[in-house]
Amino acid sequence: MKTKAHSLSLIVAIVASNGLLFGQSDQPKYSPGDINKDGQVTREENTEFFTQAFRNADKNLDGVLTAEEVPESERAPFDLDLDGIITQEEYLKKRDFQFNRLDQDADGVWSAQEIANPKYTPVSVDEAFSIRDKNADGYISEDEHKADEAIEFKRIDKNKDGALSATEFTDAVVFKRIDADADDRITEEEYLSFRSMQFRNRDANADGVIDKEENKK
After folding, report:
1. CA distance 8 to 37
2. Which of 63, 101, 155, 217 has the fewest C-beta atoms lying within 10 Å of its C-beta?
3. Count of H helices and E strands in the chain?
4. Quick one: residue 76, left, alpha or beta (phi over 0 = left, psi -120 to 50 = alpha)?
5. Does 215 have pLDDT greater than 50?
6. pLDDT digit string, tens, across residues 82-99
7. Torsion region of 175: left, alpha or beta (phi above 0 gives left; psi -120 to 50 gives alpha)
8. For residue 139, is it left (φ>0), alpha (ψ between -120 and 50) or beta?
9. Where are the domains of the chain?
10. What is the structure's pLDDT at 22?
11. CA dist 91 to 36, 113, 120, 210, 212, Å?
12. Angle at alpha carbon of residue 121, lines to 37 and 54, rounded to 5°
């Protein structure tokens, strides 16, 4: 008889082969995370599924995922403290964050309807803050903000040429504001400079960090 862990390993292998282990699609129109096959996914099932997924990816069983185990392009969203490795805590924290985004009625369960028709609900301000507060000290520093925006720049830069075109950055008004030299392309330097200016504008008391109240403004 197959053990539960063995069954999960097979599911994880299927998920990984379809780019869902670290992919940006939070949930397909079927759910391999529905462990008991009752047509819905509980938070506990979600955690159990991705705990096993993490363990399967951790080839040397050292409790972290490195560049040798997961490509850089796939690691970036999960490496919350940007130290080059992903701990299980980081990985599950991001997966729980993604679970909340699809749990539209906030009942702790993905219903069949939510699985079949995944519509993103607005991420709460507090949830977004906790993800950006890498060291969990209750503040977002300018370095943390810049690191997030550097990742965002790379995500938007679809053709990986080191600049954003008008077709990649689709908000025409903001595009012109960021494009400081008006050459119809946004370099990473221009992008990060603009985002840093926004950070300082939000930092109302000019103490170099954004607290939860400033983040809501």
Report:
1. 12
2. 217
3. 10, 8
4. alpha
5. yes
6. 888 999 999 898 888 888
7. alpha
8. beta
9. 4-123, 139-215
10. 52
11. 23, 26, 20, 24, 23
12. 50
Give, in order, the Cα–Cα distances in Å from 37 to each of 21, 34, 42, 47, 135.
20, 5, 11, 16, 37
CB-CB contact of 164 with 149 (8 Å): no
CB neighbour list of residue 66: distance below 8 Å, 6 or more residues apart: 84, 85
Task: For residue 195, give Cα distances in angstroms to 32, 39, 54, 174, 183.
Answer: 38, 43, 33, 11, 19
Number of residues written out for the chain = 217
CA pair distance 75, 91, nearest whole angstrom: 9
Domain 139-215's class? mainly alpha
pLDDT, mean of residues 100-118: 78
Type of residue numbered 111: S
59 sits in the region (left: phi over 0; alpha: psi -120 to 50; else beta) called alpha
